[in-house]
From TrEMBL:
Transmembrane segments: none
Source organism per UniProt: Winogradskya humida
Ranges where the FAS1 domain occurs: 36-207
Signal peptide: 1-26
Alphabetical UniProt keywords: Signal
Protein name stated in the entry: FAS1 domain-containing protein
Pfam families in the cross-refs: Fasciclin (PF02469)
Amino acid sequence: MRFTRAAAVVAAAVVAVPLVAGPAAATGKSKPLGTRSLAAVLTADKSGFDRNGRDYDILTAAVLAVLKAKPGSPVGVLTDGTTALTAFLPSDTAFEKLVADIQHSKRLPSEKAAFTAVAGLGIDTVESVLLYHVVPGATITRTAALKSDGARLTTAAGSTVKVDVYGYCWKSVKLIDADRSDRDPRINKFDLNKGNRQIAHGIDGVLRPIDLP
């Protein structure tokens, strides 16, 4: 995979987000952040489609499929660790639940079947969904996220998701997407690739950029 000019354009379109002013502000440290990319993190897992619903095999396959079909896709920003961004990573189970929902099935498909169904939506649709999970220009750590109740994050797709911090003694975060009829995804893993300009948080559902029936 390679970083493209199109990806640079998206990454440069930084929208004012009240969470952080930049990589240094996100961590509260003056030490420069590392440049390991999220693509490197995702592709480090060589297990392929397995039975571990908590990892990101389907997401990784979707990213690779988009970049293979569209080398100039803005999704390529995930391969450039020098560009700050925050991504929300749906687990394999999250994609399986999405496919079951779309197919009106009570049974979850296998990871391979779920990826096939997602790919069947069309490469442009897959690309749009992936970009809806990326917030360019901001390295948002768990600490920053927990202080950002009500913030609206502008994604690389151009639309927004809203941060909802809830709970009394133990704070949790969910993301409110464009689909008003689904359960909003919760963050279940924080600070993946922490210490780098590109950071990610695992989520238990796929963010939906449109209101699905």
